[in-house]
Amino acid sequence: MTFSAFSRLILLLSVGMLCPLGPAFAQPSGLPPGMGPAGPTEVGVVTLTAQSVEMTSLLPGRVVASATAEVRPQVGGLITEVRVKEGQDVKAGDVLFVIDSASYQAEVAVAEADVASAESQIPAAQATVTRYTTPVQSGGVAQTELDTAEATLARAKAQLLSAQASLRKAQLSLDRANVTAPISGTVGTIEGQLGALVTENRADALTTIRQLDPVDIELAESSTNLLTLRRALTSGALEGQNGEPPTISLTLEDGSSYDQTGTISAADIVVSQTTGSFTIRASMPNPDRLLMPGMFVRATVSVGNQPNAYLVPQRAVTFNDEGQPTAYFVGADNKAEQRVLTASREYDNARVVSSGVKDGDELIVDGLQKITNGDEVSPLAVVIEDNGVIKQTPPREVADATPIGGAAPGAEAAPVAEANP
After folding, report:
1. pLDDT tens across 224-247, in order?
2. Which domains can be identified in the chain, with CATH numbers?
């Protein structure tokens, strides 16, 4: 075989391999198995429904005693008894300290004697007046003598009143030798010790009593927020609480939640000229004495309800280049539709949305990383648990699922994916 014949053979074999002949090889081989045309992307969705969402405000606060009384003696003398201990709960009227009362008892005895002496003068003076009254009318006794007798009777009565007042004063001093609790509460540090000499209305208190159940929470709120709240209530964008005082819940310094709920009891009527804020006072039950005066807390205040709002889970919300919140929904023909939302605030791991959605919209909460605007999707009803795990809702329970931005508490569901937006 010549070189040219060999070359033609190679060329024919090459052409035959590239373009095989015959019916068995006339059709293209196609794509590899599993690489056919892509179908719709499966995504997890929740159905949104308008609802009334609680409006809250997070404020810094400080715990103060609901009532405080500094105990001071109202008479002087040596303390002979201390009947209370630090940290003890007392009731109003309980005796806390006893001051030596011997001198006050003597004063009471003297005052009682003066009262008895004054009382003894009145019968004789009254008898003289009675004896002179009739003769004066008949001319047997001069009018001046009757006038003198009546003056003597008046002085006797005045001396009795003075003696009785002195007795009451002496008795009051004797009673005040027992220093009592002016209010019910818990006793603080005791400064008045046994044997100490105290004086009337001394500058330093013997002890301080504080009422710790309930306690007051002093909150600071800006006047700007107050104006915004009032406008929202007036316009109807926020529903009031039917005359009921706003409620508050507390978060303690260690991040834990306090297990009691309080109510707003008062608000200052003056705005601070330096901070532009005013003080709100709330009353909070404190049966276990967990809240102590001076402790700082964060208070969540419920100020009303926002009607016709939608809760859109945070995991479904992204922000565009202009900083606007957006989310994907299942649109016409089962295509992903990205919308710009009007979100006012956060609430329980969701955003409160007032526009951009409507009842029955299917919000995409899972599979977001696999879609773009306009992609064809296959929606699958899911629920979002409190721990962020997404689970598929079985078909028989779809109708019972609560569409509040994703979660249907208590639904038995099969896990689909972890919370990865």
Report:
1. 777 766 666 566 555 556 667 788
2. 42-53+308-417 (2.40.420.20), 55-65+215-306 (2.40.30.170), 76-98+177-204 (2.40.50.100), 101-176 (1.10.287)
